[in-house]
Specification:
alpha/beta; about 30% helix; hydrolase; peptidase activity
Length: about 190
């Protein structure tokens, strides 16, 4: 039986931050499921950095089907969790079901990969207290308010929690996450 990985996301998630780990983990032999508030076709976005803008820009991205709803997730069925960024975490953190999922993974010390604005969900579930993390740099105050020690670096590994700033950091983020994942839940 394949080792299962869960991605929690929703509309307005950053396309690359969902699809890069989805494809990379499948390439390694993991079975990957995408959970969202409900089963439907999700609409992702593309965040980019352009000269003259004080922050990132947003454009329409890919669409992708969710495999299951948050309420249907049995956390014991999954070895690890991926929490992409984009705008989705801003509203998903208010969902009690996604907070239940995050809390279960954190309490079980299962590997969690979070990127960009994804740590907003982990923070809402109480999973950042006393942890070292990175996130999109504009979230430094949010991370500190959640009790985390914020580091503005490409990737931060704190035990089973692996975080990155944004999609330009994907290669190192997934390399570090796979190191943790192979130690905790290797593909047979």
């Amino acid at each position: 039986m394949a080792v299962k990985i869960l991605i929690v996301t929703g509309d307005a998630a950053e396309s690359l931050e969902v699809l890069y780990p989805y494809q990379r983990l499948r390439e390694e032999g993991y079975e990957v499921h995408i959970a969202a508030p409900q089963v439907k076709k999700l609409r992702f976005v593309v965040h980019d950095f352009e000269d003259g803008f004080d922050t990132y820009t947003e454009k329409p991205g890919y669409t992708w089907p969710a495999d299951l709803a948050f309420a249907d997730v049995v956390t014991e069925d999954y070895a690890a969790l991926v929490v992409p960024g984009g705008r989705a975490p801003e509203y998903l953190r208010n969902d009690p079901e996604v907070r239940r999922i995050l809390a279960a993974f954190a309490e079980a010390d299962k590997p969690i990969a979070q990127i960009c604005h994804g740590p907003l969900i982990t923070a809402a579930a109480g999973g950042l207290t006393g942890r070292r993390v990175t996130a999109y740099p504009a979230l430094e105050l949010d991370m500190k308010a959640a009790g985390a020690d914020f580091e503005d670096s490409e990737t931060v590994v704190d035990g089973t929690l692996v975080s990155a700033r944004a999609w330009p950091d994907h290669s190192r983020w997934m390399r570090e996450f796979l190191t943790v994942l192979r130690g905790k839940a290797p593909v047979a």
